[in-house]
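Input set for joint prediction.
Command: fold jointly, output tokens.
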Amino acid sequence: MNDPAVLNRIRWRCRRGMLELDAWLARFLDVTYPNLGEVEQALFEDLLRAEDDDLYGWLTGRATPPERYSALVETIKATKVSI
Amino acid sequence: MIPKRTFDAVIVGGGGAGLRAALQLAEADLKVAVISKVFPTRSHTVSAQGGITSALGNVSDDNWHWHMYDTVKGSDYLGDQDAIEYMCRNAPTAVYELEHMGLPFSRLPNGKIYQRPFGGQSQNYGGAQAIRTCAAADRTGHALLHTLYQRNIAARTQFFEEFFATDLIRDEAGSILGVVALEIETGQAWLFESRATLLATGGACRIFRHSTNAHINTGDGLGMVLRAGLPLEDMEFWQFHPTGIPEVGSLITEGVRGEGGYLLNKDGEKFMERYAPNAKDLASRDVVSRAIAQEILAGRGCGPHGDFVYLKIDHIGADKVKERLPGIRELSMQFAGVDPCVAPMPVTPTAHYMMGGIPTNMHGQVVAPVKYGPEEPVPGLYAVGECACVSVHGANRLGGNSLLDLVVFGRAAGLHMIDFLRENPIPANLPEQQVDKAMARLARWDKKTGTETVAGLRTDMQRIMQDHCGVYRREDLLKEGIAKLDQVEARLPDAALSDHSKMFNTVRLEALELENLIPIARATLVSALARTESRGAHTREDFPKRDDGQWLRHTLYTRENDQLDYKPVRLKPLTVETFQPKERTY
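tokens >
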């Protein structure tokens, strides 16, 4: 599902309180998200409900994400933010 | 007329400062609204991982007067000493209050609040290192936000999450009567009428190309204040960190150089040996930042655009890098695509904190030179936190003082607003033409055709600010920067949006953010050009010395004709003796 209004909502919710999260999530949304299936897309929006502090921990490897997010977190990390 | 909601007080911004002020008001049974463009617990306060400074003396001998001395000195004597005394004296109360609210501070073995040492903290007025910053592990900002948010929910503060405030409503007499805000989900504009309005919208480091700040830090409150015809204070003072990852801006800590890392230019030269023969790569932040900027300006930068230098650490061995700098390695691999175990990391100075902002007094009242003096309160308007300039940070902020600023002055503003609301029980008549003006500004973006894009103009502005008004400042560079920014501003009317939908139109929000950023960039350039001295974070290569005779004063910039005005630094504290300006050495 690539409804523009839904995509816009998700884009705004990728705006976080920490720069690194902005960079990770926006890049993922542009590059990987459009090619995901509906279930995974819904899971990404669910992931965005997590706290910044938790997301940062999962993405930097400081903490282990809940089982349901672990594959998704790995995919986000694999979407490199290039300079 | 657009739909209207009426409150006793409206708080714009859901970070630590806004939430602390809102709590004071809500617990006094006032009707309070908090407007925030993102969910409050995703405010930039979460990035303050280090802690909150307060002279509790749990680890080292300490008292608030030493903290005050360090803050005055750290500010390079530009901080107002009455406000600094107020902040440092009230710091222990503020921290204990947070503890009682349930903030989970880390603990010492004896059960007292854990404290850690930060740079610039001393015992006995410049003596041994003090250990003064209270921490909740490495998530103090996060814990602070959550604690305050929960308390606000309990006190029935009304949250308008994902609402973007666009303009203040100011009547003929100069009073502020509320704000216009967009409901992001629907695109609907609302009028929030209130007898008192507090701006707590955070900093504006996104004017720079390289910044450690989240993308939300676009200085929305500062833009609103400039459009209302009010001044900004000390906008030439921005704190930079020397080593950030280019483009992303993410911070590479001093720890890398502490472990033996060194900087290289494109010729492979260890250039810090030229700038700081003794301290070399371990020189202070400002020295390293300026050295990197000079190498880049001289054409010795690395990469296809020559706009960064390298930070090499692989010579200490992959095992040590992995063991001692795991977090840095992860950030470098993620954001620079470089494994520091095998290759040098690209780094460049990155903007970190805005010392200037909306001028206020100790009660959070926004003050401006109006009729009778330089610091006359604007009725009904308050500001707290990074968006405000109270001024406790002066020309340079000390680590751990920003969270303290939020809670101490958030509370002070809340207390003053309660009195103000009691003295002013009747709302003034709201001037409809002011609302129309705010709506016309929004309608401008309905235009369907244009040759410019918001993203293109923003990138150009950010490059101008980085190249002409970053850590290395000189008259000719600044003048050229203003001329270039003139061109960007001239192109702004030709910009059109690619999306005109109503729901969650992020492109439209970015356009409104750009309209806040550009005048802030301009205020910064104009203020920096005028200040012909070097003080704190503002370094002029053509005026390398601090000049107390001429410049021990605050800059006030107003948008109309780029007008500059000045007011004296408040050197007299509340109860103690003045700390007289001295040379700042560490």
